[in-house]
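Model it.
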Amino acid sequence: MGNLLKVLTCTELEQGPNFFLDFEHAQPTEGERDVWNQVNSVLQDSENILSGLQSYKGAGQEIRDAIQNPSDHMLQERAWNSVCPLVIKLKKFYSFSLRLEEGLQSLLECLTCPPFTPTQHLEREQALAKQFAEILHFTLRFDELKMRIPAIQNDFSYYRRTISRNRINNMNLDIENEVNNEMANRMSLFYAEATPMLKTLSNATTNFVTENKTLPLENTTDCLSTMASVCKVMLETPEYSSRFSSDDTLLFCMRVMVGVIILYDHVHPNGAFNKSSKIDMKGCIKVLKEQPADNVEGLLNALKFTTKHLNDESTPKNIRTMLQ
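Modeled.
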């Protein structure tokens, strides 16, 4: 994913240290191996999840036919048989989000624990830093696709309505063994979010901070702000961006940058947009705005609609204006 990149870190810029973040060739050391294997077992399924989402067609026509002809048993059966496999697929996506959540928390534990600073962790444990970036990259890709598929919520709403009415007797109701009422409730909340994977990771990061009370909050927020700075520098510096072998690498960096900004905004009490933030929000937004609109529309929307503190009074007006 491009050549080895030398980047100044945001948190230690005044001291001048720098390090390489290799998003392509980083391999786990023995100390990283256990966590790397755990997270890799999740990430290796990510492309299949994205392919499944991309090929999601929905049962819109079948559902419309069934609703318009409520007494036609054949149309009811056809709609139900079309929706059930889709609900199983939606459960698979949701279950993957839980695995991704576990992987993220394992990485945060490694990248924030004493005695090293988060910056030292990112420099020393490049393979885990790469996996952290890959999780965020997947997350933004998933959510960008999901936002373009309104059929997901329509299909699931029809499924829930049909189950609750119990108007279809003995017709593939074994699906309730796969998606019981509790699972359906959790899935409904998940898919109601505009960016469900990012919401999952935001909650996971917040829970990580809450559950690790002895770990200074700065360990987590500095890890996130440093990642944002690394990606921003790679995007805005011709010396680095010229080494990218394809536009996919640019998109990778943009998605990771936006992902860590959102996580930072949810975890830090003052958010990412405050003047005291360690993330150069104006610079990050400027970098995004300089890219082709088609590449960044979903990312800018994620910043606008998924962050927690954008509309706080402490957010500079020029930041809000840039995102309009």
